[in-house]
Each structure stands twice: as structure tokens, then as C-alpha cells.
Specification:
73% helix
Length: 406
Amino acid sequence: MKLWIKMAVGLVAGILIGSFLRSDSHAIVPLYTAGMVFMRTLSFIFLPLLFFTSIRVFINLRTSRNLLIVFSKSIGYFLVLTIVGAAIGITLGEVLKPGVGITVSAFESPVLIDYPGTARFITDIVPDSVFRLLTSSTSALPMLFAGFLAGMGILAAKEKAEGLFDILVSIDDTLHRLAITVLEFLPIGIFASIGAAIGSSTFGQILPFLKLILVIAAGSIIQVFIVQSLLVYFLTKLNPFKFIHAVLPAAIIAYCAGNRYTAYPTLVECVENNLGADREVFSLTAGLGTALSLSGSAVAAGVTTLFVSQAYGLDLSVYLQIIVVLLITVSTLKLDGLPEGSLVLLSVVLSYVIKLPAEGYTILLGVTAIIFQIENVVNVTGNAAVSYIMAHSEESVSGVTVRDFL
């Protein structure tokens, strides 16, 4: 049986089982545990996989010119998708008005989300010790920086480092093989994660925000099926449906986990094995995308900004809406290590543009898990789109061959 059929069975079974469970059911615990074990295994693979693969990328690119071209073009594509995503979110929020009729109650928490200043963000990219690097559970940019230093050191040592390079390549190949092995259990992970999530939720908690969730979902569909897919088609001539099919496992993991970092190992295997891209070219873009591919978070932040404003009875001018789009785009550059995504962006916008209390994001705390799930699907597919585009531009694509297990 092909994997996509197994995934569909796991998804449907999880929805059915979860819908019959109550939030206090004893069955929730084993489902949650099984789902968390699967997701944490992928999270465990993320940083070492990124580190060893990035070393191979930096050595493969060799010259600073090639490195700069890939780096600059990748960031450019991510920013374009983010701008479009924020614009889509703001437009849908303005037209569909999901916040009208919402009653603002007392804040659930006065605690602000920690959004780093520019100087702190830059210095945090350079870890002050190996221990600090290893204990960073999500941040991608410090690991890429460490991979860059290791790659440059190996290039400088030349033939003296050949033995070390062979060991690193062996470790990298082993980690990729491990990632593929873990993905064999993807249907079980989907079943457990979705079953536990649905069983733990109550419709009464979601109902007041149902329109908001549907608007975010609509914006996400536009971003994935129109913006990202057509961008891939026009720049690579790849059939949009083949692209969606190829990255579907990574999108499902992103949805189940609600976390773009957890989806990284699956993303890499999809782009390499399904889309035929050369790992030693696109992995730099994929690593950057884990930190910077936030077009889905931009969609959600745009919609939720209008939602909170409308809940307070405020009507944002076109000028302010443009400012919000630009601020969301710029703010995404400093979200590495912060999986909350749109919630951080919303807090920043509320503080700096609309002049509402930054704690206003707490209005959404009851449904943030659902929002994170939706936005991270778009974040991960956007990362896959730009990764494939960059591999294609470097003429490092052997052909689309979607495999049965992916």
C-alpha cells in the first residue's frame, strides 16, 4: 500500500477516534504519548541533520560568490512570499471582518512574548560555546553558522581534512537514512497526533473563533495553491499538482506538529527523493527557510491583526494596513527559535502600529494551536517551493520521481 493511502487512513481514523473521545477520556493519554514520541523523534533529528548537511553544502558551493548568490536569492524569495502572505491576510481580514461581534474580555495573561532586539538576535546567531549550540532546541541559524565554520575549516585544511570529511558525509547519510526510517511510521504518528488533538478540543472553545480560523485557512489555501504553486510553475515549469503531491508528507507533519522545525527532516527527504533536487545545493535554502520561510505566519498575523482591531472596534486605514504588511515582513527576519510565529508578529504589530496592548494576543490563546497548525503548513510548503526553485536555478535537479514511501 502506498504511503499517501496509509496517511489518509491514519488521518481519517484519527479524526473519527478523536471525535468520539471526551477531553477527560483515559484514551487521550496514550494517543498523546504516541504522537509526542513520533514528533520528538523528528525534532531530535532536526539539528544534527541540519548541521552535517550544511557542512556538505558549504563545501560543495566552495566559492563565496556561489554561497552569496544562493543565500541572497533564497532570502529574496522568502521575503516576497512573506509580503504576499501578509497582504493576503490583511485583505481577507478587511473584506471578511472576522473580528466583528467579538467581545473583548479581560486578558488571560499580562506576560509579553519575548521578541529579541536586533543586536541580541545577531549575537545569538554566534553561539558562545558548543554546549550552548547543542542545547539550542530549535534555532536554525546558529547551527548553519557552525556548519559554515566547519565547512570553511575543512576547505582550508584541504587534503589533511579528507578523513574528517568522509566521516561527516557518512554521519550525514546515516541521519538521512534514519529520517526515512522514521517516516515509515508516519501514518501511526498522524493517527495518534490528530486523535489526541481532536479528543482534547471542545467545540465550545473553538466556536467563537470559527470564522477567524476559516479566514486564515482560506488565506493559506490561496498562498499554497495559487501563490507558491504558480511561482514554482513559472520558474521551473513543474506541474503544481506534482509539487503539492511531492511535499504532502512534510505539510502533514507541519500540520500535526504545528511546528516548522519538526517538519524539517521530512521536508529535506521530500525535496530530495520526490522532487529530485541535489541535497548538497538546496539544503542551505531549506535550512534558511526553517528560520525565514514564514509566509503562513504572515497570513495568520495579517488576519489576526484585523481580528483584534475589529474586536476593539477599530478601523485601520489603508495607510496603516500597508505599514502592518511591511512590519510583519521585517519582523519575520528575527523569528528563528520562536515557533509561535504569527502570535509573536501579532504582539509586535499591536505594540508598534495599532497602539493596543501587546497582551491583546491573549484573546486568541484558546485557538492558537489550531492557527499554528494551519500557518506551519504554508511555512513548510513555501520552504519546499523556494528550495526546489533554487536547486533548479543551479541546474541540480535530476527529475521529479515521487516515491511510494514518500
